[in-house]
């Protein structure tokens, strides 16, 4: 394998977090930067399968990295899209309560949103919510005006354009295979399509971030467990049922938001997702299976602790995955008019969820570090919304800790 140029920093992964990190680093200082990516195109996995929501920051624990980065990143995203003529819309969303218990939790969400700096939040009665979404039914709703929509593939392409203009190199079709430790704190980054010298690496490998960390000599302390989110789409003659975004009140007993409706910036309305354990890290189809990925899951103590806690919930998600009727039942809690005939099969995405050995789903952004290394081991939603802020956070870490 031929060794080519020497770089100040090599970034592993050309999803939206890796690209945003390179974008922010190249904006801050004149450095020799290289981004290496397994796929032949950027934003192929989590970014490319994103539902396209610009999140407000409503749900996240005040003071958490999620909350801080989402609020900062959301406004930065709107400005970036405006400056780069990327189609987007600050359309707002409704979070809908369907019973008294959910109405109480809705009020708690309202106060959390205020603590996270959201402006213009409105509590709505059952009648008032239908002025925003005429076909929705519930006991109360929370209107969140900061929420918006965009296509994150367009955002990623804009990051790439700016990076290349500043001299950042991007190597596609080069899967990371190992890190050799040399003299004077130098590394050799090995890939399937070349090797490069560097003093510093940043791991933004998403679904493979834990394995990349191990190849770099770290014990990551968490394992990536993939969860597939499956969508239906409303047929064109039923698009009128959803004006913008309609969400349920999240159940605090479960780690996912629940199925919802999302109008997409390039047309159409998605309904979903569920949250199904995937048996392959790139398992976008129900039948996708990989022995290594599956053994990684079932051989991990943390998974069995998680399964003991959420096993029944997980079985329900599997049932909804295979039963359109069950999926529609969940959607009808928000819009009773929805029928099976209104929906056609849509796409799917796979969430790279970090899981601790104690069975805890890591709920915030999570980093691990070593000399000359930063590893992004958990970057769940709202990572795309917050990408400029997360990229800034990672860039600041690099500038403070790395040797150039």
Task: Give an overview in words.
The protein is α+β, with helices and mostly antiparallel strands. The protein has a domain at about 5-45 and about 155-220 and about 365-400: FAD/NAD(P)-binding domain (3-Layer(bba) Sandwich), CATH 3.50.50.60. Helices cover about 30% and strands about 25% of the residues. The chain has ten helices and 20 strands. It has helices spanning about 15-30, 65-85, 100-115, 125-130, 150-165, 210-215, 290-300, 300-320, 325-330, 385-400; strands at about 5-10, 35, 55, 90, 95, 120-125, 140-145, 150, 170, 175-180, 185-190, 195-205, 225-235, 245-250, 260-265, 270, 275, 345-355, 365-370, 375-380. The strands form three sheets. Strands 5, 6, 7, 13, 14, 15, 16, 17 and 18 form a nine-stranded mixed β-sheet that branches. Strands 1, 2, 9, 10, 11, 12, 19 and 20 form an eight-stranded mixed β-sheet that branches. β10 (about 175-180) and β11 (about 185-190) form a beta hairpin.
Short structural description:
By secondary structure, the protein is of the alpha+beta class. It is built from ten helices and 20 strands. The model has no long low-confidence stretch (mean pLDDT 95).
Topology overview:
Layout: E1 3-12, H1 16-28, E2 33-36, E3 53-54, H2 65-83, E4 88-89, E5 93-97, H3 100-115, E6 122-125, H4 126-132, E7 140-144, E8 148-150, H5 152-165, E9 169-171, E10 176-181, E11 187-191, E12 194-203, H6 209-215, E13 223-234, E14 245-248, E15 260-263, E16 269-272, E17 276-277, H7 291-298, H8 301-322, H9 324-332, E18 343-355, E19 366-370, E20 373-378, H10 387-401
Parallel strand pairs: 1-2, 1-12, 2-9, 5-14, 12-20
Antiparallel strand pairs: 3-8, 4-8, 5-7, 6-7, 10-11, 11-12, 13-16, 13-17, 13-18, 14-15, 15-16, 19-20
């Amino acid at each position: 394998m031929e060794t080519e140029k020497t770089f100040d920093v090599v970034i592993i992964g050309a999803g939206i977090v890796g690209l945003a990190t390179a974008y922010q680093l190249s904006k801050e200082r004149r450095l020799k930067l290289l981004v290496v990516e397994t796929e032949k195109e950027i934003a192929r996995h989590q970014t490319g399968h994103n539902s396209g929501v610009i999140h407000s920051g409503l749900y996240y624990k005040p003071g958490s990295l999620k909350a801080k980065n989402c609020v900062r990143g959301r406004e930065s995203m709107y400005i970036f899209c405006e400056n780069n003529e990327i189609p987007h819309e600050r359309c707002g969303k409704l979070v809908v309560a369907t019973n008294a218990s959910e109405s109480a939790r809705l009020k708690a969400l309202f106060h959390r949103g205020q603590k996270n700096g959201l402006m213009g939040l409105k509590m709505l009665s059952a009648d008032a919510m239908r002025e925003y979404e005429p076909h929705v039914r519930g006991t109360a709703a929370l209107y969140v005006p900061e929420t918006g929509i965009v296509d994150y593939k367009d955002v990623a392409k804009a990051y790439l354009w700016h990076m290349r203009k500043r001299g950042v190199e991007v190597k596609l079709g080069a899967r990371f295979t190992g890190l050799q430790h040399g003299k004077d704190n130098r590394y050799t980054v090995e890939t399937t399509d070349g090797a490069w010298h560097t003093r510093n690496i940043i791991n933004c490998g998403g679904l493979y971030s834990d394995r990349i960390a191990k190849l770099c000599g770290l014990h990551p302390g968490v394992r990536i467990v993939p969860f597939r989110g499956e969508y239906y789409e409303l047929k064109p003659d039923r698009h009128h049922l959803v004006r913008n975004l309609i969400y349920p009140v999240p159940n605090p007993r479960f780690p996912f938001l629940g199925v919802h409706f999302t109008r997409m910036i390039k047309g159409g309305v998605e309904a979903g997702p569920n949250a199904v354990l995937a048996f392959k890290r790139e398992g976008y189809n129900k039948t996708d299976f990989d022995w290594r990925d599956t053994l990684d899951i079932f051989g991990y103590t943390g998974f069995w602790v998680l399964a003991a806690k959420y096993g029944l919930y997980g079985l329900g998600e599997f049932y909804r995955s295979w039963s359109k009727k069950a999926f529609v039942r969940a959607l009808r809690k928000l819009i009773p008019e929805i029928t099976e005939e209104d929906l056609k099969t849509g796409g799917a995405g796979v969430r790279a969820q970090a899981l601790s050995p104690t069975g805890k789903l890591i709920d915030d952004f999570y980093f691990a570090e070593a000399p000359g290394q930063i590893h992004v081991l958990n970057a769940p939603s709202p990572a795309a919304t917050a990408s400029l802020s997360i990229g800034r956070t990672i860039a600041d870490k690099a500038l403070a800790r790395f040797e150039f």
